[in-house]
Design goal:
The chain is an alpha+beta fold. About 20% of the residues lie in helices and about 35% in strands.
Length: about 130
Protein backbone atom coordinates (compact mmCIF):
# COMPACT_ATOMS: atom_id res chain seq x y z
CA UNK A 1 0.00 0.00 0.00
CA UNK A 2 2.83 2.41 0.82
CA UNK A 3 4.42 1.61 -2.48
CA UNK A 4 1.19 2.50 -4.30
CA UNK A 5 0.93 5.85 -2.43
CA UNK A 6 4.55 6.66 -3.28
CA UNK A 7 3.94 5.95 -6.98
CA UNK A 8 0.77 8.07 -7.04
CA UNK A 9 2.52 10.99 -5.31
CA UNK A 10 5.49 10.71 -7.66
CA UNK A 11 3.17 10.98 -10.64
CA UNK A 12 0.97 13.78 -9.29
CA UNK A 13 3.52 16.17 -7.78
CA UNK A 14 5.19 17.25 -11.07
CA UNK A 15 1.76 17.83 -12.64
CA UNK A 16 0.65 19.96 -9.69
CA UNK A 17 3.87 21.98 -9.80
CA UNK A 18 3.44 22.63 -13.54
CA UNK A 19 -0.18 23.70 -13.03
CA UNK A 20 0.82 26.14 -10.28
CA UNK A 21 3.57 27.59 -12.48
CA UNK A 22 1.20 27.98 -15.43
CA UNK A 23 -1.42 29.77 -13.32
CA UNK A 24 0.96 32.23 -11.66
CA UNK A 25 0.88 35.58 -13.50
CA UNK A 26 4.15 37.12 -14.58
CA UNK A 27 5.24 39.86 -12.20
CA UNK A 28 6.96 42.73 -13.91
CA UNK A 29 8.64 44.62 -11.10
CA UNK A 30 11.00 47.57 -11.17
CA UNK A 31 12.98 49.53 -8.61
CA UNK A 32 11.60 53.01 -8.03
CA UNK A 33 15.00 54.59 -8.71
CA UNK A 34 14.78 53.26 -12.30
CA UNK A 35 11.68 55.39 -12.96
CA UNK A 36 12.80 58.01 -15.51
CA UNK A 37 9.69 59.93 -16.59
CA UNK A 38 5.93 60.06 -16.71
CA UNK A 39 3.06 61.43 -18.76
CA UNK A 40 -0.69 61.70 -18.47
CA UNK A 41 -2.85 60.21 -21.18
CA UNK A 42 -5.50 62.29 -22.89
CA UNK A 43 -7.96 59.90 -21.23
CA UNK A 44 -6.95 61.68 -17.97
CA UNK A 45 -7.33 58.60 -15.76
CA UNK A 46 -4.18 56.88 -17.05
CA UNK A 47 -0.49 57.57 -16.43
CA UNK A 48 2.43 56.19 -18.39
CA UNK A 49 5.76 55.64 -16.62
CA UNK A 50 9.09 55.28 -18.43
CA UNK A 51 11.37 52.86 -16.59
CA UNK A 52 15.04 52.74 -17.58
CA UNK A 53 15.32 53.11 -21.34
CA UNK A 54 12.45 51.50 -23.15
CA UNK A 55 10.01 49.98 -20.66
CA UNK A 56 6.66 51.74 -20.43
CA UNK A 57 4.22 50.94 -17.63
CA UNK A 58 0.54 51.88 -17.68
CA UNK A 59 -0.98 53.04 -14.38
CA UNK A 60 -4.78 53.04 -14.20
CA UNK A 61 -6.15 55.63 -11.78
CA UNK A 62 -9.50 55.85 -10.05
CA UNK A 63 -12.19 57.19 -12.39
CA UNK A 64 -12.49 60.95 -12.26
CA UNK A 65 -8.82 61.64 -11.47
CA UNK A 66 -8.54 63.99 -14.46
CA UNK A 67 -4.74 64.19 -14.42
CA UNK A 68 -3.21 66.60 -16.90
CA UNK A 69 0.46 67.36 -17.27
CA UNK A 70 1.18 71.05 -16.84
CA UNK A 71 4.45 72.89 -16.39
CA UNK A 72 5.26 73.26 -12.72
CA UNK A 73 3.53 70.02 -11.70
CA UNK A 74 5.38 66.86 -10.88
CA UNK A 75 4.45 63.33 -9.90
CA UNK A 76 5.66 62.12 -6.51
CA UNK A 77 5.74 58.53 -5.27
CA UNK A 78 6.15 58.07 -1.52
CA UNK A 79 8.19 54.92 -0.88
CA UNK A 80 6.92 52.93 2.08
CA UNK A 81 8.96 49.84 2.83
CA UNK A 82 10.57 48.21 -0.19
CA UNK A 83 11.63 50.27 -3.20
CA UNK A 84 10.37 47.52 -5.54
CA UNK A 85 7.20 48.39 -7.44
CA UNK A 86 5.30 45.29 -8.53
CA UNK A 87 1.64 46.30 -8.37
CA UNK A 88 -0.62 49.32 -7.98
CA UNK A 89 -0.55 48.77 -4.21
CA UNK A 90 3.15 49.69 -4.20
CA UNK A 91 2.40 53.16 -5.59
CA UNK A 92 1.59 56.05 -3.26
CA UNK A 93 1.22 58.81 -5.85
CA UNK A 94 0.55 62.51 -5.55
CA UNK A 95 0.54 65.31 -8.10
CA UNK A 96 2.38 68.29 -6.58
CA UNK A 97 3.29 71.80 -7.68
CA UNK A 98 5.90 74.38 -6.71
CA UNK A 99 3.44 76.17 -4.41
CA UNK A 100 3.28 73.16 -2.10
CA UNK A 101 -0.16 71.98 -3.13
CA UNK A 102 -0.49 68.23 -3.49
CA UNK A 103 -3.31 66.07 -4.80
CA UNK A 104 -3.27 62.33 -4.00
CA UNK A 105 -3.79 59.86 -6.84
CA UNK A 106 -5.01 56.32 -6.29
CA UNK A 107 -3.60 53.70 -8.66
CA UNK A 108 -5.90 50.77 -9.39
CA UNK A 109 -3.75 48.80 -11.85
CA UNK A 110 -0.13 48.67 -13.00
CA UNK A 111 1.25 46.67 -15.91
CA UNK A 112 4.18 46.74 -18.30
CA UNK A 113 3.16 47.34 -21.89
CA UNK A 114 4.26 45.20 -24.80
CA UNK A 115 6.17 46.85 -27.67
CA UNK A 116 2.99 46.67 -29.77
CA UNK A 117 0.98 48.48 -27.08
CA UNK A 118 3.67 51.16 -26.77
CA UNK A 119 3.63 51.69 -30.55
CA UNK A 120 -0.14 52.27 -30.39
CA UNK A 121 0.17 55.12 -27.86
CA UNK A 122 -0.06 58.58 -29.46
CA UNK A 123 3.36 60.24 -29.49
CA UNK A 124 2.20 63.19 -27.36
CA UNK A 125 1.08 60.76 -24.62
CA UNK A 126 4.44 58.96 -24.32
CA UNK A 127 6.56 59.82 -21.27
CA UNK A 128 9.79 61.74 -21.86
Amino acid sequence: MRWLCAVVLTLLLPAAANAATAQAPARDCFISSNWRGWSASRQADVLYLRVLGNDIYRVELTPGSHVRRYGGEFLVNQIRGSSWICSALDLDLALSDYNGFSRPLIATDLRRLTPEEVAAIPREDLPY
